[in-house]
């Protein structure tokens, strides 16, 4: 299996709890909170561990919450490289109302990051990356970070001949994609941003994805379509992957689980189709878990088998 490095520049402690009904201006009695390591790249490393793979989890962290995050990853037996920062690592909160079966997610912005702290991340990547490695940069930027930070990461990956996978949003995604990537996993809204349009319908999806690939230095584009699966586009192939219908408990971490599944399959030598199918299986499995829990291997395998059997061969077009 090829080496995988995940990068998270704005990690979090994800705290989740439940409450029997939400009412304003009232003291609400919650269940004991569950604390988990969160942030795009950290979630990817966590899922890779669940799949039987390994990775180096690289992230920026500071303060008591940063130490808590480090301890959680030690307990999970995930290899880590911490870039210390002055600010405290953020905490996010997810509350599930058990009466209405609704989940409320509160995301915090994260600590201010200095130019020197950003440079330290880039310098560490220069030292760590080797030819053929997978580098997965996932999640939002922290306040104070330059909007082209992921583009700078991409230039280092190109220099080192590593396979750069980017999963973020907004202008950071646009800048990073323009600089060049191996793979992108946008959702429909993020693809709209990449294509410079406000909205995009399913009718326009395939044509827009092809145009984007023709004008962007990207080898693989996998557009996440939520419960409807995904669209995979390369320079010579387009394929729709259908997702099975499952009982969804939470969508937290579904995108990160999908990315982890795809990277795991690629690192094991799988084809692009196997990669996309396994990724959809992992993303779907994550929605079956409650709160901030990620996908579980016992759920993934039967979903993957279903997807393999039900991928319509007519939806696979080679050029």
Automatic annotation (TrEMBL):
<comment type="similarity">
    <text>Belongs to the carbohydrate kinase PfkB family.</text>
</comment>
<keyword id="KW-0067">ATP-binding</keyword>
<dbReference type="GO" id="GO:0005524">
    <property type="term" value="F:ATP binding"/>
</dbReference>
<dbReference type="GO" id="GO:0003872">
    <property type="term" value="F:6-phosphofructokinase activity"/>
</dbReference>
<keyword id="KW-0547">Nucleotide-binding</keyword>
<keyword id="KW-0808">Transferase</keyword>
<dbReference type="InterPro" id="IPR011611">
    <property type="entry name" value="PfkB_dom"/>
</dbReference>
<feature type="domain" description="Carbohydrate kinase PfkB">
    <location>
        <begin position="15"/>
        <end position="295"/>
    </location>
</feature>
<dbReference type="InterPro" id="IPR002173">
    <property type="entry name" value="Carboh/pur_kinase_PfkB_CS"/>
</dbReference>
<dbReference type="InterPro" id="IPR017583">
    <property type="entry name" value="Tagatose/fructose_Pkinase"/>
</dbReference>
<dbReference type="InterPro" id="IPR029056">
    <property type="entry name" value="Ribokinase-like"/>
</dbReference>
<protein>
    <submittedName>
        <fullName>6-phosphofructokinase 2</fullName>
    </submittedName>
</protein>
<keyword id="KW-0418">Kinase</keyword>
<dbReference type="Pfam" id="PF00294">
    <property type="entry name" value="PfkB"/>
</dbReference>
<dbReference type="GO" id="GO:0005829">
    <property type="term" value="C:cytosol"/>
</dbReference>
């Amino acid at each position: 299996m090829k080496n995988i490095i995940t990068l998270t520049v704005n990690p979090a402690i994800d705290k989740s709890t439940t409450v029997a009904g939400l009412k304003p201006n009232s003291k609400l009695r919650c269940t004991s909170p569950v604390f988990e390591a969160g942030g795009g790249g950290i979630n990817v490393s966590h899922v890779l561990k669940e799949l039987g793979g390994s990775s180096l989890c690289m992230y920026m962290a500071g303060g008591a919450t940063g130490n808590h995050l480090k301890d959680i990853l030690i307990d999970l037996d995930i290899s880590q490289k911490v870039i210390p920062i002055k600010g405290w690592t953020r905490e996010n909160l997810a509350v599930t109302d058990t009466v209405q079966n609704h989940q409320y997610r509160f995301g915090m912005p994260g600590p201010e990051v200095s130019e020197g702290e950003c440079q330290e991340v880039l310098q560490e990547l220069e030292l760590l990356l080797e030819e053929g490695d997978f580098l997965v940069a996932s999640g939002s930027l922290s306040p104070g970070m330059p909007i082209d930070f992921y583009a700078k990461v991409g230039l280092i990956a190109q220099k080192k001949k590593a396979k750069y996978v980017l999963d973020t949003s907004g202008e950071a995604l646009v800048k990073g994609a323009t600089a060049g990537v191996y793979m992108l996993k946008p959702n429909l809204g993020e693809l709209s941003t990449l294509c410079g349009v406000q909205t995009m319908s399913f009718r326009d999806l395939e044509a827009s994805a092809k145009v984007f690939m023709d004008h962007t230095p990207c080898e693989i584009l996998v557009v996440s379509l939520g419960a409807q699966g995904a669209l995979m586009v390369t320079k010579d192939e387009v394929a729709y992957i259908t997702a099975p219908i499952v009982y969804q408990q939470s969508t937290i971490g579904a995108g990160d689980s999908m990315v982890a599944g795809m990277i795991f399959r690629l690192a094991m030598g799988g084809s692009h189709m196997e990669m996309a199918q396994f990724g959809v299986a992992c993303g779907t499995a994550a929605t079956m878990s409650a709160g901030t829990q990620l996908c579980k291997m016992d759920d993934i395998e039967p979903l993957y088998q279903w997807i393999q059997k039900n991928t319509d061969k007519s939806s696979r077009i080679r050029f």
